[in-house]
């Protein structure tokens, strides 16, 4: 599944046949169209955030039926609101919203669209991404333009607001690896690792300067895939050896803002949606 972000469509690409199917949700009068985060759950039901309409949207691709849940807590319509949500293995949805004027991590029941629990921050106003560990225990998210990462233990309800070593690390998008560590792309030019058990944050800088990262994702082998946002290259980072492998892209300029890793293949297959309007598949040789 993919989203063109600023148009009223969702798309599905079958990589085996190249067949594309598009779905168009009903228009909302007076509100900008477009979706942002796409999530496919264990039932192959598709979930999407409508960033400007402040909806969590459900799509059954078998029937083409849409259902929307609106969140007034996301603020003024046509401004960025409900966006980079995450879903755990039990189907609970996580996002950061204001509850009674207090910025908070919220847990949402995907069947009803109701906020069932929230955890208020003390320093963080909002997080750019929401990521959840594979066992569903930990939530994490970083702020734009600063050095704070929120970490929530959903088992104990403890919420920490942790500082990265670099003042303007700006942790953006990321994911948890299979050892339970959270990884973020730092727009300040580094990869950011957070160990939830020790709450230790480690930064890894690439072997070339003046770069910014947006999203980093771990694969099933523990390798971290990171996109040099304006550098025209994909980085493959081994956390155990701290070795980088970089892949220069054939295009003169590529801009990746969303990556998906297919862990069902050997080696893994990396997909990304380019802001220039095309989808790219990368198949490493090892």
What structural keywords apply?
286 residues, mainly beta, Methylamine Dehydrogenase, Chain H, 2 domains, 4-stranded antiparallel sheet, 25 strands, 0% helix
State the gist of this model.
The protein is 0% helix and 47% strand.
What does this structure look like?
The chain has 286 residues and is mostly beta strands. 0% of the residues lie in helices and 47% in strands. It has two domains: 120 residues, Methylamine Dehydrogenase, Chain H; 123 residues, Methylamine Dehydrogenase, Chain H. The chain has a four-stranded antiparallel sheet, with no helix packed on it. A four-stranded antiparallel sheet has the order 7-8-9-10, with no helix packed on it. The protein has a four-stranded antiparallel sheet with strand order 11-12-13-14, with no helix packed on it. Strand 15 and strand 16 form a beta hairpin. The relative contact order is 0.08. The mean pLDDT is 94.
- Oligomeric state as shown: single chain
Number of helices: 0
Number of strands: 25
Q: Which architecture name of the largest domain does CATH use?
A: 7 Propeller
Low-confidence stretches: none
Distance between the termini: 26 Å
Give, in spatial order, the strands making up the sheet with the most strands: 3-4-5-6
Say which CATH homologous superfamily of the largest domain is assigned: YVTN repeat-like/Quinoprotein amine dehydrogenase
Choose one word for the global shape: globular
Number of domains: 2
Strand content: over 45%
